[in-house]
Amino acid sequence: MKLVLVADPMCSWCHGFGKEMTALQERHPEMSLEIVVAGLRAGATDVLDEAGKRFRLEHWAKVEQASGLPFNRDGLMAREGFVYDTEPVCRAVVAARILASEADLLKVFRAFQHAFYVAALDTTDGVLLAKVGAEALSADGHFVTPDEFLSVWQSKSTIDATCADFIRARSMGVTSFPTLFLAQQCSLRRVGNGYAHVETLEHAIDALHAA
């Protein structure tokens, strides 16, 4: 039995949900977690303009109120010429999974979220992603250099594996992020979609067990 999380590191509700997922993992150490990256805006080419920034700030305020997690609003507003493409950071999550399959991928995932939402770093930059990813893996006991991380991130096999995650997310019927599933034997059952507190997740899992 395991949990399967479909999410995108540059999805604001997924950022808020990270804290709840960490709490859920702490309550259920017997359940492993698989992360499928969603590709929320994978391949986007449009530059984030002032209207786009204001639109995101409205969402960020709602997530911050619900989750209590911080957002760097000034960092977003100061961005110039930023293309909100989520493929690079999704691929960084996949690269981490390839480099250290036994690592706590949620910690790595949340490190990328923190880089974007709190540190206001450019998570479309491969060199920066490699630095963040290598530090997160090393902190989890899987020593990787930024150069090693970057090499894997740039490889065609990682690009293909990331695309496979996007396709899998769609095949699972996921239309909003985050979405959490419970996988048991041959079944995959939806725990919930969208942001939810850990207690709500617990009740949903208990109901699935009872069913």
Instruction: Write down the overall geometry.
Output: globular
Residue share in β-strands = 5-15%
- Judged by helices, strands and strand pairing, the structural class is alpha+beta
CA(first)-CA(last) distance: 15 Å
What would you report as the Rg, rounded to the nearest angstrom? 17 Å
Please name the CATH topology.
Answer: Glutaredoxin
The topology string of helices and strands comes to EHEHHHHHHHEEH
Low-confidence stretches: none
Assembly form of the protein = single chain
Number of domains: 1
Q: Percentage of helical residues?
A: 55-70%
Query: What's the number of helices?
Result: 9
Reported for the largest beta sheet, the result is:
4 strands, mixed
CATH superfamily, called what?
Glutaredoxin
Task: Using the 3D structure, state the CATH architecture.
Answer: 3-Layer(aba) Sandwich
Under CATH at level 1, the class stands as Alpha Beta
Query: Taking all residues together, what is the mean pLDDT?
Result: 96
Trace the largest sheet across and list its strands: 2-1-3-4
Number of strands: 4
